[in-house]
Design brief:
Two copies of one chain form a homodimer. Chain A is an alpha/beta fold. Helix content of chain A is 52%, strand content 11%. Chain A folds into two domains: 168 residues, Rossmann fold; 202 residues, Up-down Bundle (Dehydroquinate synthase-like, alpha domain). Chain A has a six-stranded parallel beta sheet, sandwiched between helices. Chains A and B meet through strand 1, strand 2, helix 8 and helix 9 of A and strand 1, strand 2, helix 8 and helix 9 of B.
């Protein structure tokens, strides 16, 4: 069988220990008046924000800071940041932090050019955006190297993802040193996100040899370093591997998309904003895999992932190997202390129906990319099975 | 150990059966007056050139054809094509064919903007280039997706490679149907080029996780489909796999470079233009691998490649596995009828010293990227060992 695909990703990646030091030189290529979009705590607490503003200043880049981005960023926060950008005539947006500030920085870059709410871009392609530089602090969101942004509408609980070509970051600075300060729970949830990105891109309808190559390498790095990064926060080799895995998986979903796990998780943490994205994924992954495993191509690909993860004993069939992956995932979740149900995460059971419906409105592109066709009934059953 | 790297590749890839049909729509984004840069025979013989000009015309893109590119394209040919581009005020260059026309199209795109010889760009970075679209007919050069161009100075025999950011093709059309017409010898030599690109990028000093991911996937596809594409020219699955492998390896060398095999091959076919690049590589690969295998990291990586290629029996050491790869390469060369020495290729033994010297002038970036440090004496010995 032949195959066809399109591939494009113009992000310039600057990867390495202390690459943060390059931020001034890099920013200066695009502007002199930057808005730094970041969260409330960790980047300030660990001094990274102060360091960054200094580095920028030395290269002649002034910066102002918008630090009100919350873990599940809201439309209101993004609109507010865009207003700050407009009022101060900034010519460059720098996203600093994990997935939330990075996603937001891309949305702000778009909304800063118009005088409308960022929510309106779900239906209308923006003409242009301010240049964006991402400086990522977790591994990972993948947001550091792709065009996607996720936002939450607090009125409705909707949490759609969107992305246009003008939203690609111009450059991404990936400095594993910054990640050494990540708390264990964040290492676990964001690390598991890397796994799910890789798994869904690898098995989605849009999968292709280039995205596959990223996924396979990400699986190898996850196998080598996810648990080590979790247990040894300052291990720079493990942090580097995980930072690379996050970027690879972020490139993979940019090309090959995500599937039902992400489609269902967005309305979960959209309606229950205290749930970390990666924890929501953890609760949904095993049941989603059980649903997808019966698809022939998915089974074959699950078997390949199991090969990457495991020392294979004896002559196992492809079927055996595919089911082996389910066991591997359960083990990873246990080691990371992420063996949780939706109930454990305090999802309200009465909301499961609303969550199932929203997957088909705000995340339908992900539903369509899932290897197995899903309807609202399957989705609801999956949510109920993940609730127990 | 941590690692650092930079990564950037902005080429838009359009891959798939009959993607040639999209050429008009794609070209129209960049211009209305195209110069098609191609070779003397195959694209005309198989009707691809006529088909392309028709497809362009239907989208309102006029085209003129420069079809004098030879297998080892010369500075004179490129300067001539650039003059044609200037005289006719074209706004777009389309490279059609194998590595030679594709490399040339990028060089022409640069030289068309100035009134100097393309040779001068070895020392001076061009300010800009006309937009380039590549339509590749072999698998592969890798040139379809990267910024590199190789040209031969017929006066001196020098055959340098060069590449600047403005030389990236805007888009690449990769249609495996076109490749079905490739003669067996071309399938063999270009297919082996994919292997060497992957091997040298995988083990070079600039190797990094993203380029590694491309190489590992390329090795998998080579294992599955190189010999099939050679034996069954019309097998579209094998042609698709090899087209993907060529693109992956082309992306890999764009980021991680090549090594001593390419550094020595360029002066070989530069001085003996009747030698196909892939045949020159075939003559040099085994001895180059023997030299590099003693490097610890290279040994480890050779072992990994052997794992991808082989069914591993028993408990072999990394050392055993690395040497296993040498045997695999010899087998591949035999199956492809490429088990040749420089003597078989009619290289003049008296020229070996000149060839060794030129590797350090025109291809020094490749020498420096080789995992093992090489001096002129090593290089000459390697050439002599590959001559026998």
């Amino acid at each position: 069988m032949s195959f066809s695909f399109n591939f494009f990703n113009p992000v310039r990646i600057n990867f390495g220990t202390d690459s943060l030091q390059e931020a001034g030189k890099i920013a200066r290529k695009y502007g002199t008046n930057a808005l730094i979009v970041t969260g409330k705590s960790s980047m300030q607490k660990f001094g990274v924000l102060d360091k960054l503003t200094c580095i920028l200043q030395k290269s002649g880049v002034n910066s102002i800071v918008f630090s009100d981005i919350t873990p599940n960023p809201t439309v209101g926060e993004i609109d507010m940041a865009a207003k700050v950008a407009r009022t101060n005539h900034v010519d460059l947006i720098i996203g600093l932090g994990g997935g939330s500030p990075l996603d937001s920085s891309k949305a702000v870059a778009v909304a800063a050019k118009d005088n409308i709410s960022v929510w309106d871009y779900l239906k209308r392609e923006p003409k242009s955006a301010l240049p964006v530089i991402t400086i990522v602090s977790t591994s990972g969101t993948g947001s550091e190297v792709n065009r996607f942004s996720v936002m939450t509408n607090t009125k409705t609980g909707e949490k759609p993802g969107f992305g246009y070509e003008c939203m690609y970051p111009k450059e991404s600075i990936i400095d594993p040193v910054i990640m050494q300060s990540m708390p264990k729970y964040v290492t676990a949830t964001t690390g598991f996100d890397v796994f799910v990105h890789s798994l869904e891109a690898y098995t989605g309808s849009l999968s292709n040899p280039i995205a596959d190559s990223y996924c396979e390498k990400a699986f190898t790095l996850l196998k080598e370093s996810l648990v080590t990064a979790y247990n040894e926060p300052e291990n720079i080799k493990a942090r580097s591997d995980m930072a690379a895995a996050s970027a690879l998986a972020g490139l993979a979903i940019d090309s090959a998309g995500v599937g039902i796990i992400h489609a269902l998780e967005h309305p979960v943490s959209g309606n229950f904003p205290n749930i970390a994205h990666g924890a929501g994924l953890a609760a949904l992954t095993v049941e989603s895999m059980k649903l997808n495993i019966n698809n022939k191509t998915t089974k074959e690909k699950y078997a390949r992932v199991a090969h990457i993860f495991g020392k294979i004993k004896g002559n196992k069939t492809e079927e055996d190997m595919a089911y082996e992956l389910l066991e591997t995932v359960k083990k990873i979740l246990t080691v990371l202390n992420l063996n949780v149900s939706l109930k454990d995460l305090k999802v309200n059971e009465a909301q499961l129906e609303k969550i199932a419906k929203e997957a088909f409105t705000t995340m339908n592109f992900a539903v369509l990319n899932n290897p197995v066709q899903i309807d609202e009934n399957n989705a609801l059953k999956l949510l109920k099975d993940s609730f127990k």
